[in-house]
Design a protein that fits this description.
The complex is a heterodimer.
Chain A: H1 2-10, H2 14-22, H3 25-38, H4 44-52, E1 55-60, E2 63-69, E3 75-77, E4 83-84, E5 92-93, H5 98-113, H6 118-130, H7 137-146, H8 150-167, H9 170-181, H10 186-192, H11 209-259, H12 266-287, H13 295-317, H14 326-348, E6 364-367, E7 371-374, H15 375-397, H16 399-409, H17 411-416, H18 421-443, H19 453-468, H20 473-494, H21 496-513
Chain B: H1 6-11, H2 15-26, H3 28-33, H4 45-68, H5 78-97, H6 104-108, H7 124-148, H8 153-172, E1 184-185, E2 189-190, E3 193-194, H9 198-223, H10 226-236, H11 238-243, H12 248-274, E4 276-277, H13 284-297, H14 303-322, H15 327-341, H16 345-360
Antiparallel strand pairs in B: 1-4, 2-3
Classes of the chains: A mainly alpha, B mainly alpha.
């Protein structure tokens, strides 16, 4: 604080402060221009406060005193750095009009552009890019000359090009168009369009043919990049939706393949997983706030075992007794799902609960065409891939997995060979439920967590099972990813509802050709 | 009496008793109309309307039983056909508010003219035709493709569920032209009679009772016919039926389409009595509930579903009025207990007691 106060005394000086506090608009603008030219980071707090309206001034015997109001309610003297517990009586907020505000923005940008911090410079350019104005041009030229960071340099050039496009000479505009043509920002397309439009008489608004040709070329290049970006983003969203479907349907498909049972409460097991994540988050927050950033890692096993336990109980108490009556099992599990929903409503309330993203999952990475792939969705895809790998290893590489495959293929023969089918059933059903729990844990990171969470995904995950067929994980994977990507692509031009309906129709048509799904178990089989 | 006489076929196996009950129910509106309010024998409108609605549910349960109990096809999408019938009737009722102009919700959406599928809905007969034809045709096409590729069991069930789910999403959209999530409400008259008048209510009630009786007769006729036997054979083992030289497709398709049409009729009778139809009727949960009425009453009997619809909806009305927060627990428990302990429903339970009595006697 002392250090900051020390710096605060250097700039702005007393005369500039007085001008800002009580000067005419012209005096204020002159002071701001000086400050911008000095480009001293020390004047940032005062200017930022001025821009936010938290700069206060009041008259004392010795002149004007300028104070910065902090969010805490404290006030700091801009000249001396002295801290006051509250604003003194009679202090007025320093008002500025639009003309002064423009000068203020320029001063702020100039100081930030001169900063040694790359992030600060990028931020300044982004601000300038939002309101490009010809008066910033000298500022940008100067910044460009001393800039060494390539990324910052390109961005300065882009903003400069945007300004020159509207205000420059012919050569400047041509160069600006060329520079913009190398970017992938859809906003630049809008800037180039006016050069290619015709007026009421069918004549081009822009008379210069070279500029028109250059603009057309640049617009085409940007467009193709923007389209690539949209395409990539859509594929990414499709894979991300596919991963959700895969996580939600994997357990369902395994249990269906093994026992011929469709578990209507599977969605509620997903919901249990999500609520288990919520409980873990709350517990970590209360008892070990130091580890709050890694609560999600702790939530993964909690979600798995919470849902697995619920599934295990369901199998033992209900499903086992309905063996060989798949339609009744369907109804009974639906009954269980109703009770689970109501139970969660009674315990946690009918409202959605908040599950936060850990800091390392917020934000995203920008790809071509200004599209952003968020970290939580990337993590979701990675997580789904890991879970899938785990399931494959368990099924293909362990003794239990062997039993599961054997019972799936032929229950009676497996039993004859000494496999305890009842044990395999409950363990596998519990495991499938645990996978649903993992899906819930993952969903808590990308959507709302509420009692009806499971209902939203259940129809889609059933469709994955129908499409993928049973007995082979590959079918589920293809079906989930295929449905996810298809859904996002249809959604792009037909809307979410029509996409769902179109996909349902496609599934009905598809199973005309392959009633057993993409991958059916081959073998001698008949329901006698 | 000979077992194969038409009389026995139509009125045997408890359906005679069911007809007596329906006949008794038909007198209910009299108690509402004939006795003034405050009289000991006066029946409040609430009870008449509730009974009327439950009779609609009973028709739906009967329709469900024909496909599930007799043909082994568990549909989780029957609410869709019910709602379609309801919407077709609702279209007429909406137009009856102002036959020359647009229905209020279209005015609200600032539409200038009727969508093409609304043409002719100002005529009652046209609406009746829609009630039967639209769900019938849709069920026929859906059933044809599903049964042709031999989709059955739980596969068929979850595809029908997806069907009603997709339809619900479609009807929730304002652009679809059926009033979006508000659906149709604010009906005023049917065939120029005020819809809230006691006489109109009574007439709707009696029509429902007649339709229920008719559906029961039709059901009895079908299940005691050769067609019914083949359906039951398909239920018990479709492969064997095929090996015996029958092609199951036309049989399944017939009973499936008929069941859908019955549901639609129930919907059409339901809407004027309930005064509202919205896409919520198409939610998967509603359709599954039909299955539990049938399961509780007794599958594979025609009296069972009527009983089940009455009992479950009676309990539901009681619960949702007295302790609404426990209704879902009760319904869920009903699903579990009925499937675990009542494989043949109440009818089966009664039969077991009677057999036990006969044995001891």
């Amino acid at each position: 604080m002392l250090l900051a106060a020390g710096i605060a005394r250097a700039a702005p000086d007393a005369a500039q402060l007085a001008a800002l506090a009580n000067g005419s608009n012209d005096e204020k603008i002159a002071a701001l221009r000086d400050l911008g030219a000095q480009a001293d980071a020390a004047s940032l707090p005062v200017l930022a406060a001025l821009s936010e309206g938290s700069l206060y001034a009041f008259k004392t015997d010795s002149g004007w005193r300028v104070l910065l109001l902090k969010a805490s309610g404290e006030a700091v003297d801009a000249a001396s750095g002295e801290r006051l517990l509250s604003l003194p009586e009679g202090a007025d907020s320093v008002m500025i009009n639009n003309r002064v505000r423009g000068a203020l923005a320029a001063a702020l940008a100039a100081i930030r552009l001169a900063s040694a911090d790359v992030e600060m410079r990028l931020e300044a350019i982004a601000t300038l890019g939002n309101a490009p104005d010809v008066k910033f041009l000298p500022l940008l030229d100067a910044a460009l000359r001393r800039e060494s960071n390539e990324n910052v340099k390109t961005r300065i050039e882009t903003v400069r090009a945007v300004i020159l496009l509207q205000n420059g000479q012919r050569e400047d505009r041509l160069m600006a168009i060329r520079i913009l043509g190398e970017t992938s920002d859809p906003a630049h397309l809008r800037l180039l369009r006016p050069f290619l439009t015709k007026d009421g008489q069918g004549r081009f608004v822009e008379t210069d043919t070279r500029i028109r040709a250059a603009a057309r070329q640049a617009a085409r290049e940007i467009e193709s990049r923007v389209q690539t970006g949209e395409m990539l983003k859509r594929v990414f969203e499709g894979i991300s939706l596919g991963s959700i479907l895969l996580l939600a349907a994997l357990g369902l498909a395994i249990a269906y393949g093994l026992m011929g049972v469709i578990n209507m409460a599977h969605g509620e097991l997903v919901m249990i997983g999500a609520y288990a994540a919520y409980v873990t988050q709350t517990l970590v927050q209360q008892h070990a706030p130091a580890f709050f950033d890694v609560w999600l890692l702790a939530a993964i096993p909690v979600s798995f075992f919470a849902a697995a336990f619920a599934g295990f109980l369901m199998e033992r108490l209900v499903i086992r007794h309905l063996y060989g009556r798949p339609l009744e099992t369907l109804l009974a599990t639906w009954g269980i799902s109703l009770m689970l929903i109501q139970g969660v409503r009674a315990f946690f309330g009918a409202q959605n609960v908040t599950v936060e993203n850990p800091s390392w999952l917020s934000g995203g990475v920008e790809i071509i065409g200004k599209q952003i792939l968020t970290y939580n969705r990337i993590a979701l895809i990675v997580f789904a891939a890991l879970v899938l790998a785990g399931v494959v290893v368990l099924l293909a590489g362990t003794r239990m997995g062997l039993f599961v495959r054997a019972v799936t293929q032929n229950r009676a023969i497996a039993r004859c060979m000494g496999v305890s089918t009842g044990y395999v059933d409950s363990m596998t059903f519990g495991f499938g439920a645990g996978l649903a729990g993992l899906a819930g844990c993952a969903l808590s990171q990308i959507g709302n967590v509420g009692p009806e969470l499971g209902q939203g995904y259940i129809v889609d995950s059933f469709m994955v099972v129908v499409l993928g067929g049973v007995g082979q994980i590959a079918g589920t994977v293809y079906a989930a990813l295929g449905l996810g990507i298809l859904n996002k692509f249809i959604e792009a031009f037909a809307g979410a509802v029509l996409a769902k309906i179109a996909i349902l129709l496609m599934i009905v048509i598809f199973i005309q050709k392959r009633p057993q799904g993409i991958f059916a178990l081959k073998g001698r089989y008949a329901d006698i | 009496m000979r077992e194969d006489s038409l009389f026995f076929r139509l009125l045997g196996h408890g359906s005679r008793q069911a007809f007596f009950v329906i006949l008794a129910l038909m007198s209910l509106p009299l108690f509402n109309l004939a006795f003034p309010e405050g009289h000991a024998l006066h029946l409040p409108v609430y009870w008449v309307s509730l009974t009327g609605k439950i009779m609609c549910y009973a028709i739906m349960a009967l329709a469900m039983d024909l496909v599930w109990g007799y043909a082994g096809i568990l549909s989780l999408g029957h609410g869709f056909f019910f709602a379609l019938g309801g919407y077709a009737m609702g279209m007429y009722l909406m137009r009856a508010v102002d036959p020359a102009g647009l229905p209020p919700f279209m005015v609200f959406l600032d539409w200038k003219e009727l969508p093409w599928f609304w043409h002719g809905t100002e005529y009652f007969l046209h609406a009746l035709l829609l009630v039967v034809l639209v769900p019938g045709l849709l069920a026929f096409v859906f059933g044809f493709f599903a049964f042709r590729s031999r989709i059955k069991g739980v596969y068929f069930s979850i595809i029908t569920q997806a069907m009603t789910f997709a339809a619900m999403l479609l009807f929730f959209r304002n652009e679809t032209g059926f009033g979006g999530n508000n659906g149709f409400t604010g009906f005023q008259s049917v065939l120029e009679f005020s819809i809230t008048a006691p006489g109109t209510r009574a007439a709707l009630f009696e029509s429902t009772a007649l339709c229920l009786a008719g559906a029961l007769l039709l059901g009895r006729y079908i299940v005691t016919s050769r067609l019914g036997r083949i359906l039951m054979a398909i239920r018990d083992s479709e492969s064997r039926v095929m090996f015996s030289g029958y092609h199951p497709l036309p049989y399944k398709l017939f009973i499936w389409t008929l069941s859908a049409v019955l549901c639609a009729i129930a919907g059409a009778l339901f809407v004027p009595q309930a005064g509202i139809i919205n896409p919520g009727e198409m939610s998967p949960a509603n359709s599954i509930e039909i299955a539990i009425w049938v399961a509780v009453g007794g599958r594979g009997t025609l009296v069972g579903p009527l009983l089940g619809a009455g009992v479950v909806n009676g309990i539901k009305s009681w619960f949702t009025v007295s302790f609404p927060e426990y209704w879902l627990y009760a319904l869920g428990l009903l699903f579990v207990l009925a499937t675990l302990y009542l494989p043949k429903g109440i009818v089966g339970l009664v039969a077991r007691f009677e057999n036990a009595k006969d044995d001891t006697a």
